[in-house]
Amino acid sequence: MWALESSILGAANNSIKICEGSASPKYCKYWWTKACHDATRAKKKAFNRYKRHLGDIDLWIDYKKARAVQRKIIVEARAESWNKYVESINSRTTSADVWRKVKSINGSTAFSHVALKINDKVVVDNAEIADIFAVQFSRASNGIYNNHDFNTLKVASEKIPIIFSDNNDHWYNRSLEYRELDRALKSCNSKTPGPDFIPFDFLINMSDNQKMQLLQFYNYIWNTGLPHQWRECIIFPLLKPGKSSADPLSYRPIALTNCMCKVLEKIINWRLQAFLEHNILVTPCQSGFRAGHSTMDALTRLESAVRECLIRDDFCVAVFLDIASAFDKVWHYGLLMKIKQMGLEGNLPRFVQKILSMRKLAVRVNGHVSERYPVHSGTPQGSIISPTLFSIMINDIFDSCPAGVHYSLYADDGAFWTSGASLLDCLTLLQDVLDSVQNWSGLWGLEVAPAKTKAIIFTRKRKYNPITLSICNNSIEYVSSFKFLGMVLDKKLSWNFHIAKLKEKCQKDLRLLAIVASNRWGANFSTLKRLYIGLTRPKLEYGGFLLETASISNLKILDRIQYAAVRTMLGALRCTNTKILESEANIMPLALRRKLFLVKYACRTLSIPNHPVANITKNYYHFGFFQDSNQELPSVGRIYCQFVNLQLKYNQIATVPVECRYVTYCVPCYFSLCKNKKSDLDANGWCALFGDLRDSDYSDRIDVYCDGSVRGGVAGCGVWSSSFCIKSRLADDSSIFTAELYAIYYTLQFIRDKVGIFVVFSDSYSALCALSSFKVSNNYLVSRIRELLLNLGSSKVVIEWIPSHMGIHGNDNADALARESLALPYLGNAFLPLDDIYRHMYKHYLELWQQQWSASGLPYRSMKPVLCDTVPAHLSRSHQKVFTRLRLGVCLLTHGHHFTKSVRAECAACCCRMTIGHLLVDCPALSKLREPLMQKCISLKTTLTVQRLLDGEFPQDMLMHFLKVTGFIDKI
């Protein structure tokens, strides 16, 4: 191991310079480049030369030029750094991350120093602080529990060691493969390295030979055991939001483990998850750390239950569990016992056993590392496999729930609820669940925190007398609102508290947007739009389809947040009509996006077998009487309505086994002809090359050619061989990618029972790449074709790529069959993959938005009849604001009096009200300056009108020049 690490670090040291020392807060500018350094040096050199010859005007001019060049280069460096960062922003980026980046570009990076207060004594020594944190974090995982009975059970149980058999015959114990390593490395993000100082980037950029050596090393560990160095981690204390920095309990541990270990854990974790899903060992109501599941699963189920209860005027009571120090208190022996009961044996469970044993931690504070302390309980901090292990531990917590009680799990966030006309009956059932949870806690050591466990009674009734719920001899508090999985639920499900919190959170993002818009390095429309889409809009859309039942006034609060963001992006004035802001920025209204996300979420859940939300969605017809109610429908009811509008049925959504989202297999897909570019050879050359390939490699196989065709939204596929041919019409709105996959799928299905060995030729490079990729796919066609290929084996069939439209006889015949299939009737037996369904949905709601826009009757509609991107990207920020304000018809020249409370501006030459049309077209005093615009319109064979000047096709630079020479550009 040491030799491998030394070779990686040695190669890195020879290629990459190691930074020395730490950056000063004054000079900590992450955007600084060599060009900035050279320009600054040239400026200082010019200034020093001038100081030695004071009064020399030429040297002074040289200095001014050098200073101007330096300023320009610095602005460009800041802009380039910012634009690269903006491209990496996604829905997981926090506002705090963006604020830190903005401050770093402005040169105001903050350096924090930790100071603790222990027993009225202030501790500032970093080494002492590190030891205090290390003792605290180690004590949290010391393996000692508050339950005396459980401690007795623990001691008695651990006298019998858990031994896993040496049977490695199962698929999950096979040797690690290169495709798994490649997939694991591609999924890694550049993070801070662990104690070995090897970041992911070093591993990702290794050569193929080095990766093979790394794979051999991993297989050695897989069969022998985990190195002791990989059982140690470095902890960084991170202050919790809103907590006192002087209290050690206000910090949460953030662990840094070896990146080489994390890559290995990724591979093993995928195998473990695939085993759990394939054998249906995970409770369907567990949504945490599972592919295709999310926090929306629990929230949707609870919202539907509460909404149905409110429509019936019944009671729905929910209890939200809080498990104290959940991840830190996992009993290692109990976890291994559950793993053994699941039937795991061989290398995989032994790897888990080794990764849990003899763990140690140390804390680093400002470069000072504490002593190492042992860890006796809990899942490993910073480990990839930890969430899966915790899910196994908590999997059966609600197994004893009585009928009529529903529950959900998302990691350690648990909730259970029941509905009924009698509040007493509901609470009695919930108390039974609490008793069973308490018994479970006594068996497995995870303790419920009664003070943080809350209950809500959802009802429209004002008077009711609930009995006390209790756990561990402590009563549970009834609350009127509770934050569950990021959404604040209130007892009437009005979403008032949630939207108020959301507004407060988004105000910070709007201030950030305004600050960025005011800087020269970040102020352009595309950057601001990307910042809003990646940072603010995900907050508005998280659980957005659940918020559809909120009041109109509450939904307008969310709309105003988007309006404010769009105004900042465009540089529009506050008095601009809100209805035209979104159309100008080409940002879909939130109301339509909520409906879009509702049906997309429904399709995703319907594609997963045994998904709890899919089950209640399919059974919605039992509650058809809700349609007659004045109350808002539950989310499953709204899903039903939207599916009707889309003319989509639940059984048209194909399912993909969850285990297919974790593991992939090598399939016989080859690209022998890809060594040459398609443009390198003519048709005769390709035919000759193909003939050589067929004669040399596939002379003993039967040729089969397949192709897909799409025209005008109609799709079909064709298969041709010398002994048979197939043509089939596919569902409308199928993509060409889907058509090509169906051609391969039908081919494999047909030859499955035929005698002989085959080679399938396809001209779809993208389809074959998807099939042979090491990445998992949620496309059901890809998963089914892979399954067919694995079952048939390469001895039966292989797939080979060939170029299209190059005169290859079989390929031309398959192409002709595919085109002929477009005239066939669709029999309804070819389901659309999710990507095609999503595209169809987006198109539907885009058309709905276009219909609403066309029917709005606003004057601006003539300026933009079709919704599309119209903001010019090549203009500077100042000119873009001017152009946009003119298009919107609201500028300071025409509406500035609303802000200054003065008289509306008039044209001094014409003594009439100043309007945009008067300025650009009608004012005779500006006719001479307007001549270039007139000449350009004549050359374009059009008339000079406001709409023509601002339609986006007319040269904006000429328009800006006209406004500049007339002196009005600063008055817009």
From TrEMBL:
UniProt cross-references to PROSITE patterns, sorted A to Z: RNASE_H_1, RT_POL
Reverse transcriptase domain segment(s): 219-489
Listed Gene3D superfamilies: Ribonuclease H-like superfamily/Ribonuclease H
One GO CC term on file: DNA polymerase complex
UniProt xrefs under CDD domains: Rnase_HI_RT_non_LTR, RT_nLTR_like
A GO biological process held by the record: DNA biosynthetic process
Domain RNase H type-1, residue spans: 698-823
Example of a GO MF term: RNA-DNA hybrid ribonuclease activity
Pfam families for the chain: RNase_H (PF00075), RVT_1 (PF00078)
Chain segments annotated as coiled-coil in the UniProt record: none
InterPro entries: DNA/RNA_pol_sf, RdDP_mobile_element, RNaseH-like_sf, RNaseH_domain, RNaseH_sf, RT_dom
Signal peptide location: none
Protein name: Pol-like protein
Lineage: Eukaryota, Metazoa, Ecdysozoa, Arthropoda, Crustacea
